[in-house]
Write a structure and sequence with these properties.
By secondary structure, the chain is mainly α. It has 2 domains: 64 residues; 114 residues, no CATH class. It has 8 helices and no strands. It starts with a helix and ends with a helix.
Length: 179
Amino acid sequence: MEITCAQMDVLLSFYVEGDLSKALKLKVEEHLKNCPSCREKYEIIKTMIQDLKTSVEEKEEIYSSKSNSQYRIFQNNLSAYVDNELPADESIKIKKYTINNKQARKELQDTYNIRRLMSESFNKTKLDAKHDFARNILKQLNPNEDYSFCFHPVIKLAAAFVMTALILSAIIVFSLTLS
């Protein structure tokens, strides 16, 4: 059975993480060879992961320099700044530092992009909860198995939101532990 592009949307993240069976992995790889659209999505995901690794390495270099206390202050207040939770004087300090520091500008832009992607993902999940897209794809891949989950779509939506928040929190905590 051939994998469709819609199925690839769900399977790409599992493929990148290495969480597919051998047979399914081979089908995904064959689809990637034959489908330029899915291959482009895969390349984007791969590039994002490489950029993230590079960013972590750059942060390690920055944190290893003990003299950069302004950057640490920026790093510690970034989330509060993005959420408009800082007092006005602290926000101004963050803005000034961001204007004068290329790395800080990039990090702020990345933070806003992550926030936008989370919002888009949440809205998409909210729409998909009605149809339970993933369950339908799993049924198509393994028609003999029963995927009758008893969760209400709202509960699934809430769980997806919580998981997204936990993942982002883990990323933030990880970046803070590098200091």
